[in-house]
Amino acid sequence: MSKIYTRTGDKGETGLFSSVRISKDSPRVRAYGDIDELNSVLGLVRASSKNEEMEVILERLQKELFAAGADLASPADESHNVPRVTEEMITGLEKTIDALEERLPRLNVFILPGGGETGARLHFARAVTRRAERDIIALSKIERVNSNLIPYFNRLSDLMFVMARSVNHREGHSEIEWHRSR
User: Fold this and answer.
1) How far apart, in whole angstroms, are the C-alpha atoms of residue 132 and residue 155?
2) Is residue 152 a contact partner of residue 90, using CB atoms and an 8 Å limit?
3) Sign of dihedral through CA atoms 140, 146, 148, 154?
């Protein structure tokens, strides 16, 4: 039986798919670490969700996030046989957003993150998604990344927001509007 620990990271480095070793605090590792964190947050969302439609969506997203992490763990100019984020994944997010939004009241103001437990967790997932997006953008300024990654995470944050609204609407939690103090 193999052990969970390998000791290969004890000097602060980790390996990419190409077996190249890089620092665990590199922008690339930071970006796919954000994706790992987001996937864990979605696991928390699934643990509190009691909605079958959301379960199906969340499971799909978690699998796509594994592909996104693998994509980032193998630089875009390397030809390793790793999953990549595709345009079809982005289109899939857009279709899911559109389907959920059709059932929601129109929103013309900012709302405070919150609602029920699942909705609040989805709002938190949106914030983690935005951090992952920012770190992927920062990485793209110094290294080549798959051109689908930034649009994917941009749409994913929109989906997290719409899912939070959808869950809260379905569970009867009102949205608290934010208005500028005067």
Assistant:
1) 12
2) yes
3) negative
Q: Which residues contact 181 (CB under 8 A, 6 or more apart)?
A: none
Domains of the chain, residue spans = 22-105+113-170
Which residue type sits at 67? A
Pick the CATH number of 22-105+113-170 from 1.20.1200.10, 1.10.1270.20, 3.40.50.11270, 3.40.50.300: 1.20.1200.10
**Joined tokens for residue 143:** 């290294």
| pLDDT tens digit sequence for 43-91 | 999 998 889 999 999 999 999 999 999 999 887 766 668 899 999 999 9
Enter the pTM of the model: 0.90
Rounded Cα gap, residues 149 and 67, in angstroms: 11
Query: What tokens were used for 164?
Result: 């939070």
Residue 23, SS3 per DSSP: strand
- Two tokens at 6? 């390998």
Q: CA 66 to CA 51: how far, in whole Å?
A: 23
The crossing angle, in degrees rounded to 10, of helices 27-48 and 117-140 is: 170
With contact defined as beta carbons under 8 Å apart, do 160 and 62 qualify?
no
Given phi > 0 = left and psi -120 to 50 = alpha, else beta, which region is 161?
A: alpha
